[in-house]
Amino acid sequence: MNFVLFFMEQLPQLKALLNVPKTCVILSHRNPDGDALGSSLALSLYLQSLNHKTRVLFPSEYPVNYEWMPQSEEIIIYDLNQKLAEETIKSADLIFCLDFNSLERIDRMAAMIMERKVPKIMIDHHIDPEPFADLVFSEVSSSSTSEIIYDLIKAISPDIRLSAILMDCIYTGLMTDTGSFHHATSPKVFTMMADLKRQGLDDTRIQELVNNSLPDKYLKLLGHCLFNRMELIPESQFGLIYLTKEDYRNYDIRRGDTEGIINYLMMLKSVRIGALVMNQPTIVKLSLRSKGDFSVQQICSKYFNGGGHRNASGGSSKLSLEDTITKLKDVVTQSLTQVIH
Ligand code: 5GP
Ligand code: MN
After folding, report:
1. SS3 for 150?
2. Hey, what CATH topology would domain 3-211 get?
């Protein structure tokens, strides 16, 4: 169904749920990114302004360059405090699922969420939503979940004057999920930006906080990736960078430190499909990007237990790093022949 119709049809149901003060739990995905944080914290601030109690809950920790975000210190991390996370889920009257559409993205929390018979509201922009929520606001053409949160706020409270901290959250999601307005843009994104700027958004400050606040080790790791860990396969217009367990130790790689590395591959004219393959402690994690029609979402959902967007997706593998790379090269080559012929 057309998203606008779907949106308008479900809106009264969402409004009805928010009619009396509730305890709202806002949940986002493992390895939360700028949009997971931005959309969750923006929704939380908005619901608080409507007199609801809110708790934001993530499966795993968020990168340090988001520590400045409003109320980020109150986010409950399942990996660090399982008991509190479980109690929080039990106390929820409403559960919002933001920036993910497949239960595998919240791993061990999924069973707990599904056990709760309270309304679940999915707000997301990834391909192929799983049918686990009661209300679904899902739109793949939206740049970010933060954009849909902005739409919902404006639809419920048309005359609202957005607070500076709420705008900072929305902007963070918008900026990070569009790669600083390089992709997934639309006239609406820039109209939204104009609205936020008109209301006093300090976007340069947030660019500095998120993009220009990395530790020195980031460039050392990047240099290592580009010089020692990059492989280009010209016949497939495919490029990959991999990281070994040893690299994780030697470069003290932690959450968020590999963010953005894949973008360097995509800067090359010769690369149409790019991959970052990371040998993390328990799994091999993959980040894939593409230019144009080639869908890395299909590769990730078909072969690597993942998904995302056509041009930006992720997944994982239980094979060794070497075998994962071999499989990846095979499936990319295969998919290319299928696309071409
Ligand atoms: P990234 O490569 O930056 O981690 O993620 C790119 C996109 O793919 C994001 O929209 C992210 O939510 C999605 N994604 C990343 N990893 C996974 C995964 O393991 N499973 C699914 N379903 N989506 C993922
Ligand atoms: Mn997103």
Report:
1. helix
2. inorganic pyrophosphatase (n-terminal core) (3.90.1640)
Q: How far apart are CA 64 and CA 304, in angstroms?
A: 28
- Output the six-digit token pair for 66: 């988001």
Topology annotation, domain 217-340? Diaminopimelate Epimerase; Chain A, domain 1 (3.10.310)
Q: How far is the CA of 228 from the centre of ligand 2 (A)?
A: 31
Ion ligand 2: residue ranges with CB closer than 5 A: 35, 99, 144-145, 177
CB atoms within 10 A of CB 44: 26
The conformation of residue 140, written as its DSSP 8-state character, comes to T
């949160």: which residue's tokens?
149
Residues 251-298 have pLDDT tens digits of 999 988 999 999 999 999 999 999 999 999 889 999 999 999 999 999
CB 241 within 8 A of CB 265: yes
Q: Dump the DSSP string for 214-234.
A: --THHHHHHHHHHHHSEEEEG
Please report which confidence band the pLDDT of residue 68 belongs to, taking 50, 70 and 90 as the band edges.
very high
Interval 30-54 mean pLDDT: 98
- Which tokens go with 76? 């409950």
Q: 3-211 with 217-340: one CATH topology? A: no
Rounded Cα distance, 298 and 307, in Å: 7
Nearest ligand to the CA of 255 is 1
The residue whose CA is least distant from atom 20 of ligand 1 is 306
Residue range 96-122, pLDDT digits in tens: 999 999 999 999 999 999 999 999 999
**pTM (2 decimals)?**
0.96
Determine the pLDDT at residue 341: 44
Q: How far is it, in rounded angstroms, from Cα 301 to Cα 313? A: 9
Domain segments of the chain as ranges: 3-211, 217-340
307 C-alpha vs ligand 1 centroid, how far in Å? 6
Binding-site residues, ligand 1, Cβ < 6 A: 102, 105, 126, 287, 306-309, 312-316
